[in-house]
Amino acid sequence: MNRQGPSSAIDIEGILELADLAGKPLRTFGTNPPTADQASQKQQTAATPPAVAQAPPRTRAPATIPDLSPLRLAPTPATPFPELPGLVGRTIAAIKDLTQAPRAICGNSVLAAVALAVQGHADIKLPGGHVNPVSLFLVTVAESGSRKSSADRWATMGIRDEEAKLEVNYTAEAERYTREMELWTAQKGEILKPGNQQTPERRRELLNSLGDPPKLPPLPVFLSSDPTIEGLLRSLREGQSSQGLFSDEGGSFIGGFAMRADTRLNTISRLSNLWDGIPVRVTRQGAGTYTLHNKRLSVHLMMQPLVASQFLGAKDCQDQGITSRILPAFPDSNMGRRPFREPSPASRETVGDFAAQIKRLLRARLPEERPALILSGDARQPWENFYNRVEAMLAPGGHLESIRGLGNKLGEHALRIASVLTLFNDLGAIHIELPALHDGVALATYYADEARRLMHAGVDPAILRAEALRAWIFEAKRGDPFALSLVYHDGPNALRTAAEAKPAVALLMEAGWLEALPEGVTVDGKPRRHAYKLTAPALEELMAAAGRGTEPRDVPLAPVYPSPPAAAVPAVSAVPDGRGAPTQPGTQKPQETQAPRC
To answer: Which residues pair with 431 in a beta bridge?
Structure first.
């Protein structure tokens, strides 16, 4: 297999650990869980900027403002997305250079595009004997403004180009189908015409010689973002047999018809069947039934933290097993550290090379019977060791106990990723070699680390909505009084209805952030029935935060009402990392986690 550059910056022996495995922490690309003392010290250090940490302590007022959001307290730092070799790795670096998006966003976008392009060409034979698809289900969790859409557009450029070409051909093929169908229908009608003197046996002979009706050409669709599972299944039936459910606004799928209370379990079940490679039987009211065989689907949903908590943290999603099939990434935000600069011309060239390879893979003829990749002789034992190591970590109190569902499938995830990377480089490959297994294990352990972070950072969605409203009041309204109706029209997307906004307001009032204004008070030039303002301590905190150039803390000051000055934005210069993508200096001020912008 033709590979360029070193297989990884991390030694395969260190990942797969060929010696004694049981009882050892699973070394991942992040950090193993810190002790309680370390975690407390780390959180205190990360949550307090150096300038504040050195300042003399303030005297607290009798009534302090509670911190509503665990997301504003520094969580475990995001795990670095692993370095990958060859064109895939160079493309991830190039998209990072072009967008300045977090590396994990670029990595997930590229990996999803590769999975879509190769999943129709081969399956994976697991060491236990089962043959499963190589399809990947990926979720990227990032705040609005993280440039998810930009990274996705670069990564899927080849797929969209091929769709456009297919659409041109489809127009001509559809016209030919229409003519052939009209001719076939006319011939059938002539055979069955009343008064025809042909004997029944002769009619059967003529119908048999006529043959089946012409087939409608497949729809020119590789990427589906349909918000209903019925639409997705129809696309797989009438379109290409290998598709991707990709959306840079995953909330439209998670919050849409497909995931409503009365359709949610059906959607989860169908997606799980497609991941498993099980035939999907579809019953349509008044239109009979049909079964989808040998269809392949990869998924990449990009969503904001609030939507992710509602989806990945939902009990029915966990009970039905869909979360065990999902590989999540939750990178730290780059916002505030993206000074303008011209990207390297080489980055566009690299993305062009990647798009060309994706198009070649999509144009390659799909086999009538998919071959199944197997582990090579020297890769089998290291995979078994990795599998056993993961299994030990699933025990009560183990490193992966909190994500047992994903952990149970982590060995298969590693093989699927290794297969995807192998097929991208060599569509005719029949073995997963040790370097590809290394990359698969590296990515599988990365996703396990991210899943643990998401699980441990879980928080009540009601609190996230309240925190989103608090951030909007501080940032958009700058602390001015506001009417509830304004929240519906201009507030965070997750608070555009009374059912969502009123509980968030009530929670902020209960916590001491807001107080109600008298009914009929004039706000923004109109009398308002429901209007609110920050409490005096909350307004003091807004003033203090603006002066510090940081997120608000829970330290109330003396009451004042003038407009706060604009927050200072520290200048951060990007430095090259050797591949044309920017990295940040190691001495940079710790970033405080922002509230989700919903």
So the answer is: 374
